[in-house]
């Protein structure tokens, strides 16, 4: 009797287990998916944004033969620090410590910052800490302003705002569309909206201004010259240096005047341009520039596998050149991913600083 009970008792649970197996699989898959999503989010928020890399680049300027030091001109480029201050200070100081470690003992000629120093006025102290963290350059420090140095935005409103803009455009197009085309357009509206977002700078509502005058003054006091639509002649005959460095104001929030910046530069003199926003490449004066150094794109900031950058924040730069080096006509262009971000996450577009060696 006891034996019979022992044999028959497990039959129920075994059968129940067999019936539950698909559910267990589904539950397991959900758990695994949730864990993977949590791991990716943790990485994107807590790991990658702090993992600043030092990248090295050599740029050849054939037109600068005899006007560069024999060992070349070494430029350390910082960009897009986006410092907030306040609650972000600890995170920002961790980035500064990382930059200090990466540049310890570095010998170089020019320090440049290609804009978006701050995200909010409260980030200024951390910007000055960042500049103090790198070794002083041999020849000088220069910068240009980015859109965030002037303005802050409600980026969380960008997608709904862009949906409204997109729909308004669609309504206009619909007036010229036949009804079958209108039907097709309606059926594919969401897909085309995703395409629109991917290829259009995010349209965050402007929520206020940063004190660009105060920022400019603090940077000048530190020893960094801000090139607002002007150029400087880097002329040091004792080391064989004779080239021009120009800067333009921001394309979105400033008044960029490349023509004014370079008007007094003699024809044929080698010229490097700092522009926060690489969309300056559509300027008619671009062919006069040998090398453009930019930031702004954050390298896409989030690169989705098989999809690429979630968005590029530019209108005139091909998607494949959202960061790195490319040629535009006779002009060479380099876009850094920068070292900060407004929304504090990055995925497969890590932060960087760059040591650029310019040789003839
Ligand atoms: Fe930026």
Put the structure in a nutshell.
This protein has 360 residues and is an alpha/beta fold.
CATH topology of the largest domain: Purple Acid Phosphatase, chain A, domain 2
Oligomer: single chain
Strand order of the largest sheet: 1-16-2-3-4-7
What's the β-strand tally? 16
Helices and strands, in order, run as HHEEHEHEHEHHHEHEEEHEEEEEEE
> What ligands does this structure carry?
fe (ii) ion
Continuous helix count: 10
Helix and strand arrangement:
Layout: H1 2-8, H2 11-47, E1 53-60, E2 73-78, H3 89-103, E3 110-113, H4 124-133, E4 140-143, H5 147-150, E5 151-154, H6 158-176, H7 179-187, H8 189-198, E6 205-209, H9 212-222, E7 224-226, E8 230-236, E9 241-248, H10 258-262, E10 271-275, E11 291-294, E12 303-304, E13 308-309, E14 324-328, E15 331-335, E16 352-359
Parallel strand pairs: 1-16, 2-3, 3-4, 4-7, 9-10, 10-11, 11-15
Antiparallel strand pairs: 2-16, 5-6, 8-9, 12-13, 14-15
Helix pairs in contact: 3-4
Bound molecules: fe (ii) ion.
Fe (ii) ion binds next to loops.
């Amino acid at each position: 009797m006891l034996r019979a009970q022992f044999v028959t008792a497990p039959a129920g649970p075994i059968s129940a287990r067999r019936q539950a197996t698909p559910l267990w699989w589904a539950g397991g898959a959900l758990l695994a998916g949730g864990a993977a999503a949590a791991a990716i989010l943790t990485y994107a928020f807590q790991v990658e944004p702090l993992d600043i890399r030092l990248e090295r680049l050599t740029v050849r300027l054939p037109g600068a033969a005899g006007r560069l030091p024999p060992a070349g001109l070494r430029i350390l480029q910082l960009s897009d620090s986006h410092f907030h201050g306040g609650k972000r200070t600890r995170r920002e100081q961790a980035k500064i410590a990382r930059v200090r470690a990466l540049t310890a003992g570095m010998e170089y000629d020019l320090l440049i910052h290609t804009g978006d120093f701050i995200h909010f006025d409260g980030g200024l102290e951390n910007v000055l800490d960042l500049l103090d963290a790198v070794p002083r350059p041999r020849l000088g420090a220069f910068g240009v302003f980015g859109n965030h140095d002037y303005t802050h935005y409600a980026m969380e409103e960008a997608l709904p705002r862009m949906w409204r803009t997109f729909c308004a455009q669609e309504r206009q197009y619909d007036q010229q569309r036949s009804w079958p085309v209108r039907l097709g357009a309606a059926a594919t509206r969401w897909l085309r909206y995703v395409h629109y977002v991917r290829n259009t700078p995010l349209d965050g509502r402007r929520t206020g201004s940063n004190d660009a005058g105060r920022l400019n003054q603090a940077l000048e006091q530190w020893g960094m010259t801000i090139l607002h639509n002007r150029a400087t002649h880097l002329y040091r005959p004792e080391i064989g240096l004779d080239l021009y460095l120009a800067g333009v104001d921001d394309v979105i929030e400033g008044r960029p005047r490349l023509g004014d910046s370079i008007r007094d530069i003699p024809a044929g003199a080698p010229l490097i341009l700092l522009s926060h926003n690489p969309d300056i490449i559509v300027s008619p004066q671009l062919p006069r520039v040998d090398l453009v150094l930019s930031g702004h794109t954050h390298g896409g900031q989030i690169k989705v596998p098989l999809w690429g950058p979630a968005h590029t924040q530019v209108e005139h730069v091909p998607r494949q050149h959202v960061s790195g080096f490319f040629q535009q006509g006779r002009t060479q262009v380099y876009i850094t991913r920068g070292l900060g971000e407004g929304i504090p996450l990055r995925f497969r577009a890590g932060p960087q600083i760059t040591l650029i060696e310019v040789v003839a």
